[in-house]
Write a structure and sequence with these properties.
The structure holds two protein chains of two kinds. Chain A is α+β, with helices and mostly antiparallel strands. In chain A, strands 11, 12, 13, 14, 15 and 17 form a six-stranded antiparallel beta sheet that branches. Chain A has a five-stranded mixed beta sheet with strand order 5-6-1-7-10. In chain A, strands 3-2-4 form a three-stranded mixed beta sheet. Chain B is an alpha+beta fold. Chain B has three domains: 107 residues, DNA Polymerase III, subunit A, domain 2 (DNA Polymerase III, Chain A, domain 2); 127 residues, DNA Polymerase III, Chain A, domain 2 (Roll); 116 residues, DNA Polymerase III, Chain A, domain 2. In chain B, strands 14-11-12-13-26-25-24-18-22 form a nine-stranded antiparallel beta sheet. Chain B is elongated and about 75 Å long. The chains are: A alpha+beta, B alpha+beta. At the A-B interface, strand 13, strand 15, helix 15 and strand 16 of A face strand 20 and strand 27 of B. Strand 16 of chain A pairs antiparallel with strand 27 of chain B, so a sheet runs across the interface.
């Protein structure tokens, strides 16, 4: 929250977190290209040390590619538990500075130190202290951005990171502060991709429009942006491009929810069609839950009608779910309880009540394969395989038969990942 | 009807019979009843639901023969509330009166006045050594399914005659226990029958109660009779009749792994105590139970329970391990059930991998095995 010009928002991001923890566990790995990720045939890179990044290894890259780029690398499957443990210690350090800690991931958090400033010094001082405490207490490196808003703090922490070039790694400043007066200049130099909400698709659309930096984006009028990207996304990006970000730091323990919404080009009345959309969104949400390694206990369906009135229906389940099919079952059920005759403009599915899959996503296996638990497992496997195909060949390459064979997705879907 | 007796003996008879008159299984009637029948000085208390009948005989000072039906729960509560001493029960068509000390209860007789009956199990009875049989039940009944909505046949224990004796098998599809009782005869003609675990748990309890009272060796009489539809267990003053379950029972022999590559052996009590400790962190609801992760390494195992809500617990247990280093997760309750079932002081846990059945067995205890499936951790 912007408060009287104080540089009170910090974004702390661990450097190559998983890989660094692996080096901590096995010091003989220090200085070597370490790649953490799934070791199976469909595994992807979860984290890579700077030594590995020099070879071009990046997060989310298939492990097979990483092995090709960096044949001398040390490839480890890693233990999620270890990361959770280190992350817990990290959060303790952060919470000793302020209770307003908003973890974004195991290795990343926002802090609002506006209230602590009198006691502990300004944002910059706190950032420097945190960095050295993390160094001393966890033997790990991190980068910290300090600014007036989450947006700028996050961009600043990125700017604080070591620089990776094919020729080698140059240490970064570790802490970057974006003063109020420098905000616009700092922001406008960034690529548009650096803004939250700009994914590859939006970036591509903007590039065709001649927009590649945030400065380019800021120069485009809000009306043109709305025409290009739709009302919500257009306005939101325009605000961000002018460093207007009022998102507060919310002290929460975990990711709050993962959702997916679709706005339809024409209002929908047909229940069967809406059901398909609910299932389709559920599959997306499940995929993102899986990517974030969480399972969900609460499923919320959001329906916006032609007149913009909106209803939400949610259900909390006794056990966490993680497959799109299960999420979809609940979403479709919730849809049945909504009066749809007015025509539906937007449909969204959201998963909340999230917990790490590692600590609550488990299945009691059965001796007999036709039991429910194993069926859940098989559904998961099918979805995982489908996800991989979509990742490689595009979103429309595969869909469950129940979703039909529509090749065009209606309207610009909006995704939300609320933390 | 009229009789006089001591509170303690009456209470025991009523409580035992009422275990077959549970509200859970009583069909239709709001409140299950007990039937009291007096012949001379013998009182027969019968509790019954559609699946199970328990008939208890006890001696009283009879005054006038007769029969009466009384709400089970209420009568047990009334008699239990009395001080030790004499209790007088009288009845006519409308009510039963129960008196003790200066307390007096008049209980209305239920309208639909009849207890359900099972056909008396025919056939020739076989005599079973009660204590050994009950111990076998203790080891096996735990693996049966308790909620019958999913697969009714899994709520039963398979009793079958093998070449060497009687075998008991139960599985709820997540774990499986089987016990060979050498030298015992089972259902006649090499048949196999599926007896509800609930009834067998009662048999086990009754034998235990008898043994406690008598301090005798394995001489208590237990006669097993088996008909087409029902089976009966006769313990002298208590007779229990149960409806048999219909199969098919799973082909359990197929589930037994031919061999295990990895085997961990430890002191039973040490392993069980460590499991009970780390289990304190488990979140256990109807649908989800946090698993305990067991990391097998040379010289011992590390038990870990990790939950999002509560935190974590871990403990190392020393023992000998032969095999590859691996980590496998189990439902801690299921694993403890298996370990607790072992009679030996040394227990062996054999595993294959994180998706295949593991086995718990006792050292030198070849007649009993407990299999359990792991929990898959994503």
């Amino acid at each position: 929250m912007v408060s009287a010009g104080a540089l009170g928002i910090l974004h702390l991001d661990m450097d190559c977190f998983f890989a660094a923890v692996e080096v901590l566990k096995d010091p003989s790995l220090a200085g070597r290209p370490v790649v953490v990720g799934g070791t199976g045939p469909r595994g992807v890179v979860a984290s890579a040390s700077y030594e590995a990044r020099v070879f071009g290894v990046r997060s989310a890259m298939p492990m097979t590619t990483a092995r090709r780029l960096c044949p001398r690398g040390v490839f480890v499957a890693g233990r999620f538990e270890d990361y959770v443990e280190v992350s817990r210690s990290l959060r303790e350090i952060l919470r000793s500075v302020t209770p307003l800690v908003e973890p974004v991931a195991l290795d990343e958090a926002y802090l609002d130190v506006t209230g602590s400033a009198r006691l502990l010094g300004g944002g910059q001082e706190i950032a420097t202290t945190l960095r050295s405490r993390v160094r001393h207490e966890l033997a790990l490196d991190c980068s910290v951005g300090v600014a007036r808003s989450k947006l700028l703090a996050k961009l600043a922490s990125k700017a604080a990171k070591p620089l990776v070039e094919p020729s080698g790694v140059t240490p970064g400043p570790g802490v970057v502060v974006v003063e109020e007066a420098d905000e616009i200049e700092f922001l406008h130099r960034r690529p548009v991709r650096a803004l939250p909400g700009v994914g590859p698709r939006t970036a591509e659309r903007l590039a065709r429009f001649g927009v590649s930096t945030v400065g380019d984006l800021a120069a485009v009028g809000v009306d043109s942006l709305v025409r290009l990207l739709g009302a919500a996304a257009g306005r939101a990006l325009h605000e961000l491009a002018w460093a207007r970000d009022a998102r507060p730091v919310v002290a929460e323990r975990e990711t709050r929810s993962i959702g997916h919404e679709e706005t339809f080009p024409a209002d929908l009345h047909d229940l069967a069609e809406l059901r398909q959309h609910a299932r389709r969104s559920s599959v997306r949400v499940a995929a993102r839950c899986r990517a974030s390694e969480v399972v969900a206990r609460t499923i919320t369906l959001k329906v916006r009608f032609a007149d913009f009135s909106t209803v939400t229906r949610s259900r909390t389940l006794a056990r966490p779910v993680r497959s799109g099919a299960e999420l979809g079952d609940v979403a479709v059920d919730l849809l049945g309880a909504v009066e749809l005759s007015m025509g539906v403009r937007l449909l969204g599915v959201q998963a909340s009540g999230l917990s790490p899959a590692e600590v609550s996503g488990f299945d009691q296996l059965s001796f007999f394969t036709d039991e429910g638990a194993s069926r859940r497992g098989r559904r998961d496997d099918v979805e995982l395989a489908a996800e991989e195909v979509r990742r490689r060949f595009g979103q429309s390459a595969l869909a469950p038969a129940i979703l039909g064979a529509r090749r065009e997705r209606p309207g610009p879907p909006g995704s939300s990942e609320r933390r | 009807m009229k009789f006089r007796t001591e509170r303690d003996g009456l209470l025991e008879a009523l409580a035992t019979a009422s275990r077959a008159a549970s509200a859970r299984t009583a069909a239709g009637s709001a409140s299950p009843s007990l039937q009291l029948v007096l012949h001379g000085n013998q009182l027969i208390v019968t509790g019954a639901d559609p699946d199970l009948v328990i008939e208890v005989r006890t001696s009283v000072a009879g005054d006038a023969d007769g029969a009466v039906l009384v709400p089970a729960r209420l009568l047990v509560d009334i008699v239990r509330s009395f001080e030790p001493g004499a209790v007088t029960v009288t009845s006519d068509e409308e009510e039963a009166r129960v008196l003790s000390g200066r307390a007096e209860f008049s209980v209305r007789v239920p309208v639909a006045a009849e207890v359900s009956r099972l056909s008396p199990a025919g056939g020739e009875g076989v005599s079973l050594p009660a204590r050994r049989f009950a111990e076998g039940l203790r080891q096996v009944v735990r693996a049966a399914l308790t909620d019958d909505t999913r697969a009714p046949q899994l709520t039963g224990v398979l009793m079958l005659t093998t070449g060497t004796g009687l075998r008991l098998v139960a599985t709820d599809s997540y774990r499986l226990a089987f016990k060979d009782l050498a030298g015992m005869s089972g259902p006649s003609g090499g048949n196999e029958v599926l007896v509800p675990a609930r009834a067998l748990a009662e048999v086990q309890r009754l034998v235990g109660a008898l043994a406690d009272g008598k301090e005798s060796d394995d001489t208590s009489p237990l006669v097993f009779r088996c008909g087409e539809l029902d089976a009966a267990f006769d313990l002298g003053h208590v007779q229990l009749t149960t409806r048999l379950l219909r199969g098919p029972f799973p082909d359990y022999e197929r589930l037994l792994p031919p061999s295990y590559p990895n085997s961990f052996t430890a002191a039973k009590e040490e392993l069980a105590a460590a499991l009970r400790r780390v289990r304190l962190m488990v979140r256990d609801t109807k649908d989800v139970t946090t698993p305990v992760r067991i990391s097998f390494t040379e010289g011992g195992v590390e038990l870990t329970v990790l939950t999002a809500e509560t935190g974590r617990a871990s403990e190392r247990v020393d023992g000998s391990y032969v095999g590859e280093e691996t980590t496998i997760a189990f439902n801690p309750g299921y694993l403890l059930d298996g370990i607790d079932a072992i009679r030996a002081d040394v227990v062996t846990l054999e595993v294959i991998d994180s998706s295949k059945p593991a086995t718990v067995r006792g050292e030198g205890e070849d007649d009993y095995r407990y299999l359990l499936m792991p929990v898959r951790v994503s």
